[in-house]
Request: fold
Amino acid sequence: MNAMNSVNPLDPLDPLELLLAERACERLVIDFVHRLDLGEPASVAELFTEDGTWEWPAGERLVAGRDALAAYFGSRPADRLSRRLMSNVLVTVTSPDTATATSYFTTYRVDGHEGGLLPPGPPVQVGHYEDTFRRSPDGTWLLSGRILHLAFGGPTPRPPRP
Reply:
């Protein structure tokens, strides 16, 4: 048994396939926040399986299905400025077609942004995601579930008016 397989003995994939699966899932974690902050928020739904879910247990929110996810993330305020920092992304491939991950996030954001540079403020959220992934028949990896856990959180501020 080589060192790669000893890390994840349940995974029958060869080392290269294992790395490719891990990277594809890590890419989804990063693409999710990129689309929220710099892209079209509703397009986050494209990263999920048709029956994918996003859940925030502490906020008692569960959004299920790609259409509902597009509506939920697409309802983000148009004047919201946000930047999320992702770190500690740990993907575990559990089978040739499934994987899990845990990743940490820090969110900075304001509502009512009218352009220009803002003075920095503290983050409004710090927490972690627990993700599940499935590989589709065409080989594409997608999120099948994302659960948000907050360790620290507060309201989204509005920038001061001149």
The two ends are 65 Å apart (CA to CA). Confidence is low (pLDDT under 50) at residues 1-6. The chain is about 25% helix and 40% strand. The CA atoms of residues 91 and 120 lie 31 Å apart.
